[in-house]
Specification:
Number of helices of chain A: 9
Structural class of chain B: alpha/beta
Radius of gyration of chain B: 23 Å
Oligomer: heterodimer
CATH class of one domain in chain B: Alpha Beta
Number of strands of chain A: 19
Distance between the termini of chain B: 15 Å
Number of helices of chain B: 19
CATH superfamily of one domain in chain B: FAD/NAD(P)-binding domain
Distance between the termini of chain A: 46 Å
CATH topology of one domain in chain B: FAD/NAD(P)-binding domain
Number of domains of chain A: 2
Strand content of chain A: 25-35%
Strand content of chain B: 15-25%
Structural class of chain A: alpha+beta
Chain lengths: ~400, ~500
């Protein structure tokens, strides 16, 4: 017999699970969040903190725009800092191909009524002191920004607890009980938790988690890398994308930049995924020094890696399973941080009302109806075999 | 990429012995040592706590190389045995394949000098990376002139580039006494040796000799503060402590000194072992996290061996370099044997003269002494002393989980959160505390604050320090400028195939 019960059990204390938990608790629901590790211990607390209107993926624009509105007052509302700043996002081109991409993204943004301005190399040099002379032009989004992912996940967790929410960290999900087409309880290493609704926000573990209820969802984990320099004098507060990198200067002065090849990986439901860095950090360093030659002397003091998840069309999944009919699947396909407030709002709406005003039409599970169990092999998304 | 059969990292006593032993067994050995370190790195207190107390000589690379090469007979011996010695070269990374990293075609090391970095492959690796200075906060330890025992030793001995003139030594164990001895021998005055214990723990003969030369020992004392002007230490205030490590009012003594040397303990440099996934365990009597190893100095990773302080440091090793030397010889033999250069029988025969106690490093635990120091220094210096001098995080801010000060975040809800409330939700984890307060995130890469953060977490949340998980190590384990870390020759394929975020989605490298 379950020893604990809740209106909603959320599996995963990443940023999507925590925003969902926060909005549900705010709406008066009794919510338990379960995670095999600590809050935001994986990609949610290890990402670059970029927040954008997602004009690269038009189906995500409405949600991203909604998220930015929520970000603006999030820390005040939570009572804990997120280090959110909204000084814009600048994408710079260093090749003709980059320029073509910027123009089409600008057109897409304008079609959606967003602010997006092409900027000349001379303006770019004013915005980002010390940037390379090789920029051909840039695209500036006034509404873009960034936040501190580590502070944000803890802020969400604490604010959720302040509303009475219960957080079970270091707690492994071992099974999900289904009866008559509905989840009745989530079994964990800390005992069973009876639930009226379940939200599976398990990130890279999403597919493994839905397998527990016999449902196939195409989600593949991948490892990505990022590095940090020692603090340098304040240069820019704009989120910067270019030369194959994305990143920002943190409030602490450190330059945080990531990019480069991802590596497909496997995960399990019980342990923290292994996430080493590789010599790729040297190539990231080179690209960063090429992008900001004025900072070539800045010492790199740290690097880290994270395991994110992807689905075949690289877009989020926010949907309720057909069976069990009280299980909400949410994964944001390696774009979870920036859109998280809107994700949480949408999931909370689905749980509370079965529908949401946020446009999640493109994020349903039915789009994968033709995808078979061997999809990872077919796409070349399996990890390479161990060599030794 | 260049490939070497055996790489030994660290040319101290144990590393040089390992290299020589393996070379005598017929192995082509590469011995790498980061000394002399670039002055910019020394200024960041990496890899030791140099506390800015170095002379201008440190800027002269050629002079430093000459002195470092001349300072070690063991290195000369290794060279004579045919070892390829590479000085002025640091190892900033160690990479091998794992569950989610499968792209390498063999284990690799990242190397760098002051101008460039490069990668090499190896068949076997002996890590003789030594130990680093234990940092424990006191008021004024962020000023120039606060140094560590190893930092002071390197400057005085290896580089002959110490700028200290008058020193107060914290710690009256063998580490503190031998630091004082070295200082006196180099013409540096030793104004006082201080210890929180009520007796001198270190070697009697050493202590007697120091006292005969007029060095004052203050037992049952701690440092209230180092007082400075223009960022430079000028005097040190000592204060007596009672049985509960509480300062006794009215017992303050002001001592003129330009240097305060933390000689309380040393911590094994396990960062490369951690990157390679070697099993580590907490061993208080050996300075903290140490590698699991057998009596051949083999770690849990079959290609990796250890020797010397990195395998575990205790104060007995300060006065007896045979322990490190014998460990080095054992590791050298074991590596040679595993490469097939000598047979098992020959390895056994060659180790016959290595005494059994050579690898027995049992000694007393050190954490209660470290904890007494920490408690007395925090009580005497007040809650606003910096636990993390790089990021300027105070003891109070750590305990309160205060968001970074520059955010100017003041909210009632935040003020209800602290280490204890965090520990109710999940066992205290130094990595989580690091994320929230920025403690350990500075340019010294957490070298000065790791141990005391773990100790404070343990004390504040009622855990044993052995149960606090290790604060993670990530490459580069030396702060390298972008223009040094970058690859000079980047493969054309890497440049051409560099993806944008998951575009193309197929894995491009491998």
């Amino acid at each position: 017999m379950p020893v604990v019960s809740a209106d909603v059990v959320i599996i995963g204390a990443g940023v999507s699970g925590l925003t969902s938990a926060y909005f549900l608790a705010r709406a008066g629901r009794d919510v338990v969040v379960v995670d095999k590790g600590i809050v935001g211990g994986e990609a949610s607390g290890r990402n670059g903190g970029m927040i954008s209107e997602r004009t690269d993926e038009p189906a995500m624009i409405p949600m991203a725009v909604e998220a930015i509105k929520l970000w603006a007052t999030l820390d005040e509302e939570l009572g804990y800092p997120t280090e959110f700043t909204q000084q814009g996002r600048l994408q710079v081109a260093v090749t003709e191909k980059d320029m073509d991409d910027l123009f089409s993204e600008r057109d897409e943004a304008l079609r959606h009524g967003l602010r997006a301005d092409m900027v000349a190399p001379s303006q770019i040099r004013d915005m980002i002191p010390g940037i390379t002379d090789r920029t051909l032009g840039g695209l500036f989004f006034a509404n873009g920004g960034h936040a501190n992912s580590q502070l944000t996940v803890q802020a969400l967790a604490w604010a959720f607890q302040d509303l009475g929410g219960r957080l079970f960290q270091n707690t492994v999900v071992t099974g999900i009980q289904v009866d008559s087409g509905r989840v009745t309880s989530v079994e964990t290493s800390a005992g069973a938790i009876a639930a009226d609704m379940v939200v599976g926000a398990a990130g890279p573990q999403t597919a493994l988690m839905t397998q527990l209820v016999g449902v196939h969802v195409p989600v593949a984990p991948a490892r990505v890398e990022i590095l940090a320099t020692a603090p340098v004098p304040p240069l820019f507060d704009i989120a910067l994308v270019g030369n194959g990198l994305y990143g920002r200067q943190a409030a602490s002065g450190n330059l945080l930049f990531g990019g480069g090849a991802h590596e497909w990986a496997d995960v399990d439901l019980a342990t923290d995924p292994d996430k080493p860095n590789t010599p790729l950090i040297r190539n990231i360093a080179r690209r960063l020094a090429d992008l900001l030659p004025g900072q070539a002397d800045a010492p790199v003091i740290r690097s880290w890696a994270g395991v994110v998840e992807q689905v075949p069309d690289m877009m989020p999944i926010i949907d309720i399973l057909e069976c069990p009919s009280n299980y909400v699947v949410v994964t944001a396909s390696a774009h979870g941080f920036g859109i998280a407030p809107a994700t949480g709002k949408a999931v909370s709406d689905l749980v509370l009302y079965g529908e949401t005003n946020i446009d999640i039409g493109a994020f349903g599970l039915n789009r994968f109806s033709d995808i078979g169990p061997d999809w990872r092999a077919e796409l070349g998304w399996n990890p390479i075999p161990p060599r030794f | 990429m260049e490939s070497r059969p055996l790489v030994v990292v660290g040319a101290g006593v144990s590393g040089s012995a390992a290299a020589t032993e393996a070379a005598k067994a017929g192995v082509h050995v590469t011995l790498i040592d980061e000394n002399p370190v670039p002055v910019a790195m020394a200024g960041l207190n990496v890899p030791q706590f140099f506390g800015q107390r170095f002379s201008g000589d440190l800027r002269d690379r050629a002079l430093m190389l000459e002195r470092v090469a001349a300072a070690s007979e063991a290195v000369t011996e290794a060279k004579a045995a045919g070892v390829d010695v590479q000085l002025g070269t640091c190892v900033w990374g160690a990479f091998r394949n794992s569950d989610s990293s499968r792209m390498l075609d063999g284990p690799q090391l990242g190397l760098a000098n002051d101008e460039r970095s490069w990668m090499i492959k190896y068949d076997r690796l002996i890590l003789a990376t030594g130990a680093r200075d234990l940092g424990i906060a006191f008021s004024g330890w962020n000023l120039a002139g606060a140094v560590g025992a190893n930092g002071a030793f390197w400057l005085m001995n290896r580089y002959e580039a110490s700028a200290s003139r008058r020193m107060v030594v914290m710690g009256a164990g063998n580490l503190g006494l031998s630091t004082a001895r070295m200082a006196l021998d180099r013409g540096i005055e030793v104004a006082a040796i201080v210890d929180v214990s009520n007796s001198v723990r270190g070697d009697v003969a050493l202590r007697t000799a120091l006292q005969r030369e007029g060095v004052k020992l203050y037992t049952s004392h701690t440092v209230r503060e180092a007082v400075g002007r223009c960022g430079d230490i000028e005097s040190v205030v000592l204060v007596e402590i009672d049985n509960n490590s509480e300062p006794v009012a009215g017992t303050e003594k002001v001592i003129a000194a330009d240097t305060v040397c933390l000689a309380i303990g040393l911590v094994p440099n396990v960062e490369l072992l951690s990157l390679l996934g070697c099993d580590l365990r907490f061993e208080s009597g050996l300075g903290g996290y140490v590698p699991d190893r057998d009596d051949w100095m083999r770690t849990s990773v079959e290609t990796v061996f250890v020797a010397g302080d990195v395998a575990g440091f205790h104060e007995g090793m300060v006065l007896d370099s045979e322990i490190a030397r014998n460990q080095g010889r054992l590791a050298g033999l074991a590596a040679a044997e595993s490469l097939g250069a000598i047979g098992k029988d020959e390895a056994l025969a060659r180790r016959a003269d290595l005494q059994a106690e050579a690898v027995d490093s049992a000694s007393n635990e050190v954490n209660s002494n470290w904890a007494s120091w920490l408690q007395s220094l925090v009580t005497a210096g007040g809650p606003d002393i910096f636990v993390c001098p790089c990021e300027e995080v105070t003891c109070a801010e750590l305990n309160d989980l205060h968001p970074p000060r520059r955010l100017k975040w003041e909210a009632e809800r935040q003020s209800r959160r602290n280490l204890r409330t965090l520990a109710k939700d999940s066992p205290a984890d130094s990595n989580q505390v690091k994320r929230l307060t920025r403690v350990g995130m500075g340019y010294c890469q957490g070298r000065l604050c790791r141990e005391q953060v773990s100790m404070m977490l343990a004390a504040e949340t009622g855990r044993d320090v052995a149960d606090v998980p290790i604060m993670s190590y990530r490459p580069p384990v030396r702060p390298l400028p972008l223009k040094v870390l970058w690859p000079r020759e980047e493969a054309e394929q890497v440049r051409r195939d560099w993806p944008k975020w998951f575009s193309p989605p197929r894995q491009v490298l491998g």
